[in-house]
Amino acid sequence: MIKGIDHIDLAVDDLEAVSAYFIAFGAEIIERSDHAGQTIILRLPGDNQPVIELTPTHRPDGQVFAAGLRHIAFKTDDIDAVHASLTKQGVPVEGLPKMSRGRRLLNTYDPSGMPSVQVVD
């Protein structure tokens, strides 16, 4: 059901400085968007690499996130089957899969209650 890593979402204090840091390792910016106030999406060289999504720690709506890992997103070709399997196993999920930015996604919570894995199709 899970096909690999889709993206890694990091909350950062300084989008430009952190993107320059990843660019030093060979990453390239593939998108800038106004998602979450402003987002920079980078990809390392090579085939089928997951993207690194940098989002601001301070959002325009007043939300503040701690700097660091927000979540890892896994790819699937059947998000409904993943939802059913996780629910059956007692993994906490945030409702049903929902549409976001043109894709369906499902947020899950780790045993400590932190959002840590997102599933996208």
Explain what this protein looks like in three dimensions.
The protein is α+β, with helices and mostly antiparallel strands and 121 residues long. It has an eight-stranded mixed β-sheet with strand order 2-3-4-1-5-8-7-6. It is 17% helix and 44% strand. The radius of gyration is 15 Å and the shape is globular. It has a single domain, classed as 2,3-Dihydroxybiphenyl 1,2-Dioxygenase, domain 1 (Roll), CATH 3.10.180.
In summary, what is this structure?
The protein is of the alpha+beta class and 121 residues long. It has helices at 15-24, 79-88; strands at residues 2-12, 28-33, 39-43, 51-56, 68-76, 98-100, 103-109, 115-120.
Number of domains: 1
Task: Classify the secondary structure makeup into a structural class.
Answer: alpha+beta
At the fold tier of CATH, the topology name is 2,3-Dihydroxybiphenyl 1,2-Dioxygenase, domain 1
CATH class: Alpha Beta
Count of helical stretches: 2
Got a strand count? 8
Shape: globular
Adjacency order of strands in the biggest sheet: 2-3-4-1-5-8-7-6
Write the CATH homologous superfamily. 2,3-Dihydroxybiphenyl 1,2-Dioxygenase, domain 1
Radius of gyration equals 15 Å
Strand fraction equals 35-45%
Helix content: 10-25%
**What kind of sheet is the major sheet?**
8 strands, mixed
Layout of helices and strands, plus pairs?
Layout: E1 2-12, H1 15-24, E2 28-33, E3 39-43, E4 51-56, E5 68-76, H2 79-88, E6 98-100, E7 103-109, E8 115-120
